[in-house]
C-alpha cells in the first residue's frame, strides 16, 4: 500500500511518477524498497489518468441513500408524538395525586 501512497504523493506534488522518484519517497519514509514492486507499480500507472481514477473512486465509495430512510424518519416522529402523549397522561395522573 505504501507504494501506491508514494505514487499518490508524487502525483499530488505534480512530480513524475518514475521508479527513481517512488523509490526515493519510500526510502525517505524509512521503508525497505522492493524494486520489482516499484517497477510493477510504475508500469501499471503509465496508462492511468490518476485524476480520473480518483474522481471515480470517490463516487464509487459514496454510500447510496437508503430507500426506507423517509419511512424511518416518519416512524421516529410518530414514536416521539406517542411519547409526548404518554408524558402528558403521566403528568395528569401525578397532578391528581397531589390535588
Topology:
Elements: H1 2-12, H2 19-28, H3 35-45, H4 50-61, H5 69-98
Helix pairs in contact: 1-2
Helical/strand content category: mainly alpha
Spatial gap, N to C terminus: 73 Å
DSSP summary, beta strand count: 0
According to CATH, the fold-level topology of the largest domain is Arc Repressor Mutant, subunit A
**Which stretches are low in confidence, meaning pLDDT under 50 for 5 or more residues running?**
none
Tell me the domain tally.
Answer: 2
Oligomer: single chain
> How big is the Rg?
29 Å
Q: What can be said about the biggest beta sheet? A: none
Instruction: Identify the CATH class of the largest domain.
Output: Mainly Alpha
Give the overall pLDDT as a whole number: 81
User: What's the architecture of the largest domain, going by CATH?
Assistant: Orthogonal Bundle
| Helical fraction | over 70%
Structure notes:
This protein is mostly helical and 99 residues long. The protein has 2 domains: 60 residues, Arc Repressor Mutant, subunit A (Orthogonal Bundle), CATH 1.10.10.1410; 33 residues. It has 5 helices and no strands.
Amino acid at each position: 500500500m505504501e507504494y501506491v501512497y508514494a505514487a499518490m504523493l508524487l502525483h499530488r506534488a505534480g512530480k513524475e511518477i518514475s521508479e527513481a522518484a517512488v523509490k526515493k519517497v519510500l526510502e525517505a519514509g524509512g521503508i525497505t524498497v522492493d524494486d520489482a514492486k516499484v517497477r510493477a507499480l510504475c508500469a501499471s500507472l503509465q496508462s492511468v489518468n490518476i485524476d480520473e481514477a480518483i474522481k471515480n473512486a470517490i463516487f464509487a465509495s459514496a454510500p447510496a441513500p437508503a430507500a426506507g430512510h423517509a419511512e424511518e424518519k416518519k416512524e421516529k416522529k410518530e414514536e416521539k408524538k406517542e411519547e409526548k402523549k404518554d408524558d402528558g397522561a403521566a403528568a395528569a395522573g401525578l397532578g391528581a395525586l397531589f390535588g
